[in-house]
Amino acid sequence: MSANPYETDLDPNPANYQPLTPLAHLERAALIHPDHVAIIHGAMRMSYGRFLERSKQLANALSNQGLAKGDTVSVMLSNTPAMLEAHHGVPMIGAVLHSINTRLDAPAIAFQLDHADCKLLIVDREFSAVIAEALSLARVAPVVIDYDDTEYPDDAPFPKGDRIGEHDYEEFVQSGSPDFTRSLPDDEWEAVSLNYTSGTTGNPKGVVYHHRGAALMGYSNVIASGMGRHPVYLWTLPMFHCNGWCFPWTLGVVGGTHVCLRWVRAKAMYDAIADHGVTHLCGAPIVMSTLLNAPDDEKREFSQTVSFNTAAAPPPEAVLAGMADAGFEVVHLYGLTETYGPAVVNEWKREWSDLDPGARTTKKARQGVRYPALENLAVMNPETMEKVPADGETIGEVMFRGNIVMKGYLKNPAASREAFRGGWFHSGDLGVMHPDGYLQLKDRSKDIIISGGENISSIEVEDVLYKHPGIVAAAVVAKPDDKWGETPCAFVELRPGYDLSEDEVIEHCRTLLARYKCPRTVIFHDIPKTSTGKIQKFLLRDQAKTLKSS
Questions:
Q1: Which domain holds residue 470?
Q2: Is residue 459 over pLDDT 70?
Q3: Into how many domains does the chain fold?
Q4: Membrane-crossing residues (predicted)?
Q5: What distances in angstroms separate CA 425 from CA 81, 126, 202, 405, one per listed residue?
Q6: Strands 118-124 and 72-76, how do they pair?
Q7: Parallel, antiparallel, or unpaired: how do β-strands 374-381 and 369-370 relate?
Q8: What confidence tens digit (pLDDT) does each residue in 476-511 have?
């Protein structure tokens, strides 16, 4: 057989093949737009040229501390310039960025520091007390750098904590050279960051991202979010959450401006949107509620339409209408920590806007189609690994395949093998595929309710609960039942001014659902949520187990 001419004397070389890395996005933006404002933080403005210089200085300072490729640098930071600099300066030396959830307690932080083998830790003084406690519990003894935010508000709800580190962040950065030359990944498969899952049962798993995936997410986020040149992005999503869905790297693709926000508060968000011309932001549904339910004296008028990327459950029609009236266009996304954040987008078709409200709501309820950088998205039978019929009814497990799927779980080969069984990433989410290729989630595999042999989607019941104007938040879990095995139990938060009874809530559900799907029990209760706005159903399931069988 003769040699394939397209594979002969056409090998990759440095001229035609370079490893993908998200660091290239910032470098390009600094080359083209050196004077454009890259970061706004209170009264501070930082240009793209200075952003790149400071990232290089941080990288050089880390290198001077002896850190190198494969070392872990942990950060406990709010949405501040230091966090953006860490996203670039840390991987510039081949080190791996580990962003810690700022709501965690000391034992959880200590576990992550030890598991990641942290060599250096940058900590905002807001969190110095919990970090000091975590370090007293941890086995590792990293070099500690204090970040003293000069824009820390005078009216902050609590003062800065004590300095606990060996170095001040600003002095540390200034010790590095802006002429530092970053290391090029030898392989785009090299790790760029480490993110831990929420760990609702047992210890969390460390999800490892690579340079290739983070670089591709930059392009994908631009497309999925409809970003043009020089967008203005408000940081309402925590940067510790899936590396802020990779938006710290994304904005360099289009020379965008980062508007930092330490705390998600209605007045601060409206002020930023009005004063800085914000065009995009991301967040959980709780951020939408914060905006919509803000007192009138905290709201501001603005002329631009703001694109709001949201994940988790699809927003109810009333919320979507309220957001549209307030000047926001909601883009529904779906993903997991293991997929670099969003990997599915409800790509809206122009003709759907002409549908009646009910039909539009049905379209909005779907999670959507794969991200541009995701090679395949499927709903499959996890036992046979065959795709289920795309009929909008047959439930299977949602699975992903592509370059924005994690490398695997750090130091946990068994979990990685199980997650990648059959050559697909198993999400643990249950859903259906519609004939037009749009995915719709039905539940987490652990959240599906099996009552009398019938599968009940908690998401479907929650959607109905949200249709009641008096209900502001709802979560449905399985309650053990002697007769049926399980029955739906609804936890409900009421909107101020409403007074509903259990019977009234159940009757509302019966007008829209088959009777067997309706809650048998309704608990009026503050619903526990994670720091990123996800409902902690495991706590509600534990509470439901203590209730008597109906």
A1: 446-545
A2: yes
A3: 1
A4: none
A5: 34, 37, 21, 7
A6: parallel
A7: unpaired
A8: 998 988 777 789 999 999 999 899 999 999 999 999
In a domain, 207, yes or no: no
Give the model's pLDDT for residue 529. 82
Q: Is the pLDDT of residue 228 over 80?
A: yes
What distance, in Å, lies between the first and last C-alpha atoms of the chain?
Answer: 74
Report the distance separating Cα 32 and Cα 321, nearest Å.
39
In DSSP terms, 143 is beta-bridged to 120
Chain centroid to Cα 547, Å, comes to 33
Within a domain: 455? yes
Element (H, E) at 232: strand 232-234
Is the separation of the CB atoms in 262 and 290 below 8 Å? Answer: no
Cα–Cα distances (Å) from 220 to 213, 215, 402, in that order, read: 10, 9, 13
Phi and psi (nearest 5°) for 226? Answer: 65, 40
Q: What region does 149 belong to: left with phi over 0, alpha with psi -120 to 50, or beta? A: beta
From residue 437, give the alpha-carbon distance in Å to each of 347, 366, 389, 525.
Answer: 11, 11, 11, 38
Query: Which two three-digit tokens encode residue 27?
Result: 């470098």
Question: Is position 180 within any domain?
Answer: no
What is the reported pLDDT for 88?
98
Give me the CATH number covering residue 452.
3.30.300.30
- Tell me whether residue 454 is in a domain: yes
Pairing outcome for strands 206-210 and 72-76: unpaired
DSSP 80-123: SHHHHHHHHHTGGGT-EEEEPPTT--HHHHHHHHHHHTEEEEEE
pTM of this prediction?
0.85
